[in-house]
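Annotated sample (chain length 450).
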Amino acid sequence: MAAVAAAPRPQLSPLSGGGGAAISSLTLQTPAFISPLPTRRRRRCVLRSNASSSPSPPPSQEKEAAAEVVPTAESCVNIGLQLFSRGRVKDALEQFENALELNPTPIEAQAALYNKACCHAYREESKKAAECLREALRDYNLKFGTILNDPDLAPFRASPEFKELQEEALRGGEDIGSGFRRDLKLISEVQAPFRGVRRFFYVALTAAAGISTFFTIPRLVLAVRGGDGAPDLLETAGNAAINIGGIVVLVALYFWENKKEEKQITQISRNETLSRLPVRLSTNRIIELVQLRDITRPVILAGSKVSVTRALQRAERYRTELLKRGVLLIPVIFGASQKDQTKPRGFGTRRAAASVPSVGGDFEKRTESIAAKSRLKSEVRFKADIVSPEQWESWIRDQQESEGVTPGEDVYIILRLDGRVRRSGIGMPNWNDILQELPRLEDLMSKLER
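Output written by the structure step:
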């Protein structure tokens, strides 16, 4: 949920191959694409007397004065936030609907629609939440990263409606806006900086071959007709064939680059989603995967209870060496998840621990970042439990489908220190192979991986 405030600005960063999300995704420390809407001090519709020494008016006058207070879109949004924080979701929903009817500014309309979607997500009304978010994205420049980051929308992100909305955002267009796709394309360009140069040469060489073909075709016609002064047929036909073949190859390469870019954008989005999935550490602290970047290499073990339990038992034999390589095991048992009965009790009360601040030029912020990472590193042990199992299973199913694996099959996914997917496989991992593959945290290769 977010109060009425200035529109958030995107923060672009390389996303994880994992959590994506991504990113996250897209990444990963990597902040999210978009920071959540900043909150503003909430205003109350209260009349204040000009002088504290003046006598208080009679009750009847107080009622008349209160009746004269004209609600505004901003006041309705802020009252709705207060009601939501008290668990009065239905009343909060009415306030957000009222705000939309009071000629709101674009920022107020964005906040009203977004917070209305959070209320619908709380009530498990995913279709209505998707409609509100789609309108906010299309008409009021809502950043899709805000939807990825907000814990109040966690129930919605586990629904089919979210997947549909995310696919629309990936495609971009008038129905949902192109902001999310534009951000992903920028990150894709960072990860593949020479793709644009290659496509430029493909277009330029195709144009050159086309011009050459334009002049070669008449010569080929003359060569076929023969006669005095006609060009050599074999030579002219060879030149035409080279030009046409070059055009075919260059056009194929251009479309191959486009297809590769689309695949990369989809992976970045999936990585960003992964980076926002929550886990519970051994200290019972709940964090997002993005906060583990540069600290651990998460290894996701997904499958049946028997397979996952056996893999965990085998990993215990190599515990010491795996810890030296920063391995954090995250078991995901298919079909064992039940809907989380814990509902958000109000604005901001269910948020995961704040992300580790990025290291900037300011000394105090840098010190705070280092201290936060040190505290988090001390809490990380050998295994973490998943939170919101529906979101985890949904992400793994999408990952399986993208790799051509049957959904529900046992798989493992190894993430890099920077949050991107290192590799994945069917079944459970061979821990001896992983020990050979992964360098220790203090090694040079691990430092480069960050």
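Annotation: Residues 298 and 328 are 5 Å apart (CA to CA).
Annotation: The radius of gyration is 28 Å.
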